[in-house]
Design goal:
seven-stranded mixed β-sheet
């Protein structure tokens, strides 16, 4: 079954569109929902984030199973039954969480420091790891919808850490779009089909 990539900017409406797409258009009542925001890192005083999380929780149907996996959502998808539909929201928080780990000793593009069978440190060698893992996801029997952030439209003054984030997120989007049946760019809540066509 297809892999669908939904991308958009901050507050573009990409998450709610993806939720409606997998439920109303793809006709899945039971969904494995993977949330990658690490709620333990959110300050108790950050009401904006807490309200956003509450809004996401209110929207999810009770029939959906929610997985909180900031560390390795890709492995989570591949260990779920292949007949179960999946919605992963979103790629940006996962990459940010990984890149901010204090134990991270390699920069993007460095030599691999893990066993080739490990699916944990996917950012170290994205071309090799993501090509394989996203291909595997695209071969699942059920639909998989991935929500990701668009990395920007032009030059930005960024430090090395921000460069790592933007470069890594952009590389993920490129590889995912290659294997996706449909790529949908959300602008102000309106879907623009970049690849494939409306269902």
């Amino acid at each position: 079954m297809p892999l669908w990539l939904v991308i958009g900017g901050i507050a573009s409406g990409k998450s709610i569109w993806a939720e409606q797409f997998i439920e109303d258009k793809l006709k899945h009542d039971e969904v494995e929902y993977i949330a990658t925001v690490d709620e333990s890192l959110i300050s108790p005083d950050d009401w904006t984030w807490h309200e956003k999380i509450k809004e996401h929780r209110r929207r999810r149907p009770k029939s959906w199973t929610v997985w909180h996996d900031a560390d390795n959502p890709i492995r989570r998808i591949l260990t779920l039954p292949p007949t179960h539909s999946v919605l992963w929201d979103g790629v940006g928080p996962y990459i940010s969480h990984y890149l901010s780990r204090p134990e991270r000793s390699e920069r993007l593009g460095g030599n691999k420091s893990h066993n080739s069978q490990d699916t944990g440190n996917l950012v170290h060698s994205p071309n090799e790891n993501w090509e394989e893992r996203l291909f595997d996801i695209s071969r699942r029997q059920a639909d998989t919808v991935i929500v990701s952030e668009e990395t920007g439209m032009g030059l930005m003054p960024i430090d090395p850490d921000m460069y790592d984030f933007v470069h890594t997120l952009g590389k993920f989007n490129q590889i995912a779009s290659h294997y996706a049946t449909g790529v949908i760019f959300i602008v102000a809540g309106i879907p623009l089909w970049i690849k494939g066509g409306p269902q």
